[in-house]
Amino acid sequence: MYIIIAGCGRIGSTLAQELIDEGNDLVIVDRDKGKLDSLGSGLNATRILGIEYDIDILKEAGIEHADMFLALTQNDSVNITSCQVAKNVFNVKKVIAKVVDANKERIYISLNLDYINPIKLSIEDLKSRI
């Protein structure tokens, strides 16, 4: 599959390596050059420095051919906006965002975005172990 990941923090960079190991083609977009550089030379993915929801940046990333778009930045506004662009402008079939502030989950729901909420998942897991 051809996958674009917006954001290469802990989740994005770890997932990127696993997806590459499974044989997927990957592009990582991040506005922070330091984060892109920290991926190291061992990660066989295209890296693009730029704003994650910028149409020209997404075109450079090949979004018109993407099977999946994942918004995994540390900013809900960026995740929501980039997913909306991927979904509504480029018609990417599978778009998933990461919720950063659990209190903003309702926004993702209201926009009918597929998402994960790591805080909620962690709490549920911890509670199940109590």
Question: What does this protein look like?
Answer:
Helices cover about 40% and strands about 20% of the residues. A 6-stranded parallel sheet has the order 3-2-1-4-5-6, with helices on both faces. It starts with a strand and ends with a helix. It is α/β, with parallel strands linked by helices and about 130 residues long. The protein has one domain: NAD(P)-binding Rossmann-like Domain (Rossmann fold, 3-Layer(aba) Sandwich).
Strand fraction equals 15-25%
Number of continuous helical runs = 6
> What's the quaternary structure here?
single chain
Biggest sheet features: 6 strands, parallel
Q: How is the CATH topology named?
A: Rossmann fold
**Beta-strand segment tally:** 6
Structural class: alpha/beta
The assigned CATH architecture is 3-Layer(aba) Sandwich
Distance between the termini: 39 Å
State the order of secondary-structure elements, H for helix, E for strand.
Answer: EHEHEHEHEHEH
Radius of gyration: 14 Å
State the shape. globular
Helical fraction equals 40-55%
CATH superfamily: NAD(P)-binding Rossmann-like Domain
Q: How are strands sequenced across the largest beta sheet?
A: 3-2-1-4-5-6
Average pLDDT level: 95
CATH class: Alpha Beta
Number of domain units: 1
Low-pLDDT runs: none
InterPro entries: K_uptake_TrkA, NAD(P)-bd_dom_sf, RCK_N, Trk_Ktr_HKT_K-transport
Domain RCK N-terminal: 1-116
Organism: Romboutsia sedimentorum
Protein name: TrkA family potassium uptake protein
What's the short version?
With 130 residues, this protein is an alpha/beta fold.
SSE layout and pairing:
Blueprint: E1 2-6, H1 10-21, E2 25-30, H2 33-37, E3 46-49, H3 55-60, E4 68-71, H4 76-89, E5 94-98, H5 105-110, E6 114-116, H6 118-129
Parallel strand pairs: 1-2, 1-4, 2-3, 4-5, 5-6
